Amino acid sequence: MTTVYDCSVREDREDGLAAAAGAVRAGRVVVIPTDTVYGIGCDAFNSSAVSALLAAKGRGPDMPVGVLVGSWSTIDGLVLSVPQTARTLIEAFWPGDLSIVLPHAPSLAWDLGQTHGTVMLRMPLHPVAIELLREVGPMAVSSANRTGHPAPATAQGARDQLGESVAVYLDGGPSGEPIPSTIVDLSGDEPVVLREGAVSLAAVSEALGTQVRAAR
């Protein structure tokens, strides 16, 4: 059974966060507000939960899922190493609308799709998302829409698309313009912007002190 919690009401927010944390720990999927669009998420280390997330979206492992974290330091245990370029971007834009791609730690037992040994990481600038992430740890999160349909800026928009496939919906109000995060690939010899979103290519280049190219 699906439950929606209005996070603008203190009691509902507390109950909703507890319900969402319980659902994530039980291997179920939840919808959460972020600073970009609403996301559908689950325990990043539960492969069956990630499979359920992909099934809810109607997409396969060829389109892997990113991971949201609740603090800067969390990424140290998730990736092979954190280069200075990553730390510079984290200090400049986290929490916020920038995702970074790095080689993941080979010891991690997770299956996020066909990632080719990398993981996409972001710390969102939204209090509800941050609180849940700090309670349950890293979550595999994708936009809360069916593949090929618009990413939702409201919890109701997410529910219209995902329905009963989600255990808990946390309604944090409208997310504003549904602009995706900017994705910077740091897995190669030089940084590459794979997708220019809320953070401009120019802003990324300025933070790193060098002209960063966009993927062709």
TrEMBL record:
This is L-threonylcarbamoyladenylate synthase. Keywords: ATP-binding, Cytoplasm, Nucleotide-binding, Nucleotidyltransferase, Transferase, tRNA processing. GO terms for cellular component: cytoplasm. Belongs to the SUA5 family. PROSITE patterns: YRDC (PS51163). GO terms for biological process: regulation of translational fidelity; tRNA processing. It comes from the Bacteria. It is found in: Cytoplasm. Residues 14-199 form the YrdC-like domain. NCBIfam families: L-threonylcarbamoyladenylate synthase. It catalyses: L-threonine + hydrogencarbonate + ATP = L-threonylcarbamoyladenylate + diphosphate + H2O. One of its GO terms (molecular function) is L-threonylcarbamoyladenylate synthase. Gene3D superfamilies: DHBP synthase. InterPro entries: DHBP_synth_RibB-like_a/b_dom (IPR017945), Sua5-like_dom (IPR006070), TC-AMP_synthase_SUA5 (IPR050156). Its EC number is 2.7.7.87.
